[in-house]
Specification:
By secondary structure, the protein is of the alpha+beta class. The chain contains three helices and six strands; from the N terminus they run H-E-E-E-H-E-H-E-E.
Length: about 120
């Protein structure tokens, strides 16, 4: 995984809430630091099946989350449409809908949204 972290949540609302708060706190921590000293997170969140094997997570749910993370810019969060459907009326943040996106190793396009900063 390199310098990445993979976290499993029991709730889409908790996952997005945690990601939004984490990005806010990282932005605050980066204030005043030289660009080469800042830590910028790229977060992808998906709702899907995972397989746990020897403490590692695998499966389609992980593949999509990793691809969403790669789409996210520094300090951004990308969520799949299935996550957006679960959280859109439950969180106090707006979302920008990016529409269906082709994702490597996934047969159908995935709807992608970003929580607004």
């Amino acid at each position: 995984m390199g310098d990445g972290v993979l976290v499993e949540f029991g709730s889409a609302v908790n996952a997005v809430s945690c990601a939004v708060e984490l990005q806010k706190r990282m932005a605050a921590a980066n204030e005043g630091l030289a660009v080469d000293r800042q830590i910028n997170l790229h977060i992808g969140i998906n709702l899907g099946d995972v397989v746990v094997e020897d403490g590692d997570l695998f499966g389609d749910g992980v593949i999509v989350a990793v691809r969403l993370q790669a789409m996210a810019g520094a300090g951004d969060i990308c969520v799949s449409g299935s996550v957006y459907d679960q959280v859109k009326r439950k969180l106090d943040c707006g979302f920008d809908e990016l529409g269906p996106q082709a994702i490597k190793n996934v047969t159908e396009p995935v709807s992608v949204c970003k929580p607004q900063r």
